[in-house]
Amino acid sequence: MIPEHKPMNVMKNVKTASLFEQKSMRGWWPCYVEKDGSRVLAGKVEMTLEVLSEKDIEERPAGKGRDEPNMNPKLDMPNRPETSFLWFTNPCKTMKFIVWRRFKWVFIGIIILLIVLLFVAILLYSLPNYISMKIVNPFSPR
Fold first, then answer.
1. In 48, 65, 96, 110, which residue has its Cα 20 to 30 A from 90's Cα atom?
2. What is the pLDDT of residue 56?
3. d(CA 6, CA 41)
4. Which residue stretches belong to region Disordered (predicted)?
5. What is the pLDDT of residue 84?
6. Residue 72: exposed, middle, or buried by beta-carbon count in 10 A (0-12, 13-18, 19+)?
7. Would you give the end-to-end CA distance of the chain in angstroms?
8. pLDDT: is 34 or 50 the higher one?
């Protein structure tokens, strides 16, 4: 949750911390924009700052191509959805994840009903022909 904006006069009594004593600090950092000659809070960014000692820098140099990317600091894989739900770019996946999960049994029931109705229609179409053949020639060895 993003903290609410507070006026600058309220922020005078804010507790400060030394990044050199803590070595790392995580928090919401304000981003300001100049608008009509005054600074206006445009948003806040959640960020972690870390101060490394010279020994740490020698052990794990950054930008030298020695480690795999995402090793210092190790970042977790992003938690992204399995698919894009933009229906116009991928309508089949949208149908699968939204419509199919909710109405799966309705679709299966409609398909079974259509198959049964197809068999009944074929029966009603061909039954008069077989009945008339039995009436005309009832003892045929067919």
1. 110
2. 82
3. 10
4. 56-75
5. 62
6. middle
7. 81
8. 34
